[in-house]
């Protein structure tokens, strides 16, 4: 791969199927593209697997640290970044040692960050590593920083080195299953088969969560395939996830605001979302919410705050799409009316031109007839003069 041009490498990776394996599943080759306005000076590798229960990245770092370092160097080369930093939490001692050993004789830096949820969020990790806050409505690339997950750069290395496309990933199966562990699983594998491999369910509820306990989603069924976004599946149980307590009115204690890692006002967003004041929620930076669940966790009134934010976001997105569709329809209709008016005007001009041409022809014919009649009279006069 070292002999291949950067543009060709990106084009090659576009055929690999590699996406962000940290959960965003954004196409990796798109993140490797830069333009004249975007100069990447720092590549950050996210190794801060901060949610409880999830250990797939931890095990990947322990067992394939060399692949992660090599993949990081490839990504750094393609981006043209001056610096590459791996941010890892201080509770992953074995993974840290493995990365440190693999990074010897390279320029890759290994930096330890505190084990404090949600340090795995990209913007939060950038702040912890570099002391830089990414402003709202901006992305890290606007500041010259690109972020990749450890599993993503490992996949980049395996594809360019061995031609192995993105067909599998490591998934954590944990919770109430009989033998919790990590599996490397082919995409499309039925989740039910993966549960069987983990010893099957150990309780009667058989409720499963995709993702972590803070940001995960309930799965309606295990008859679903393993996807690129599936990093963890937790089997729920009353011991792990007790029945939620009754929801009480908000007492405005501000605990949610104190816990928010992105300095929002969750209680205000809650009121706006609950009352469907969606534009007000947008004004209060609803879309800066990373849905980490910290506010819900600390709420003494047991209000499922994140559920309200997700609802409000989905409604705003739906409304924006509806407005965009309406604007597109209006523009198309205006264009159609303008086209019809233009065609009508062109037809009128053609008819007028045709009528004018007919008039000119008639005038020309009349002129010719007059001349012919005059010549005929002259001829008759000449004949009469000859007879006389």
Mean pLDDT: 91
Helix proportion of residues, in percent? 40-55%
- Give the number of DSSP strands: 9
Strand content: 5-15%
Largest beta-sheet details: 5 strands, mixed
Which keywords apply here?
single chain, alpha/beta, Rossmann fold, Ubiquitin-like (UB roll), five-stranded mixed beta sheet, 47% helix, elongated
Give an overview in words.
This protein has about 400 residues and is of the alpha/beta class. The protein has 3 domains: about 5-165, NADH-ubiquinone oxidoreductase 51kDa subunit (Rossmann fold); about 170-235, Ubiquitin-like (UB roll); about 255-315, no CATH class. About 45% of the residues lie in helices and about 10% in strands. It has 13 helices and 9 strands. The protein has helices spanning about 5-15, 30, 55-65, 65-80, 95-100, 120-130, 150-160, 190-195, 255-260, 265-275, 280-285, 295-300, 305-385, and strands at about 40-45, 85-90, 110-115, 145-150, 170-175, 180-185, 210, 215-220, 230-235. Helix 3 packs parallel to helix 5, helix 4 (about 65-80) packs across helix 5 and helix 10 crosses helix 13. The radius of gyration is 35 Å and the shape is elongated. The mean pLDDT is about 90.
List the helices and strands and how they pair.
Blueprint: H1 6-13, H2 28-32, E1 42-47, H3 56-63, H4 65-79, E2 83-89, H5 93-102, E3 109-113, H6 122-130, E4 145-149, H7 150-162, E5 168-175, E6 181-186, H8 191-197, E7 208-210, E8 217-219, E9 232-235, H9 255-259, H10 266-274, H11 278-283, H12 294-298, H13 305-387
Helix pairs in contact: 3-5, 4-5, 4-7, 10-13
